[in-house]
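As a warm-up, study this chain.
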Amino acid sequence: MDDLLLYNVIGIIPNHEDFAVSEILRQHREIGLDRFLVSLSFHPQMTPASDLIPVLCRRFAYVRDAVAGHGIELAVLIQSTVGHGWNGKVPLTEEPWQKVVYVNGQESPRMCHYDEGFRKYVYDCIAAISRERPSLLLIDDDVGVRMRECFCPKHIEALNKALGVSYSREDYEKLCSPNNPLRALLLLWRLFQPCRGRKGIGRQHRAFYPYQ
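Now compare it with the structure written out below.
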């Protein structure tokens, strides 16, 4: 039976990277843990959003260099890409990217993965953090779509093409009503639709890890 590899997740509080370093070294010394995932939030938080990328890379590099020589494997947990958003009154970024639209027409604070600009931002994040040579990248389970979404113009166009129809968002809202017999088919199509861009994420990572 293969050995079980245990990774402990360590968060990095902005401007308090030393605390993450001290926790990693303490747990290594007192518990014997030697594999850690540094949790980084890639949710767009600046304008331009790409300004966040070097900030995250510096945070990881600081911790990586500080624990070097202790026999510690340092990886990255990529969080808050597609599935999380900012619900505050003031948006964190002014990027003109398509937001996720629920079937009732309400707009989510999260970015839609069909938007090419947003996908490029995610790809650039993966490429940049890969250059810092973490032992591995673990993508949080927020990469995907949820029930009741997304019904933005880009998704409706793709959905109409797949089903061979010309429906509006309002039409789909009616189809998704509990009493409609087509509801299960429509929801299953949405549930199993892959997140657009996942192959691009893999390509960006492999570009810096060609031996994997």
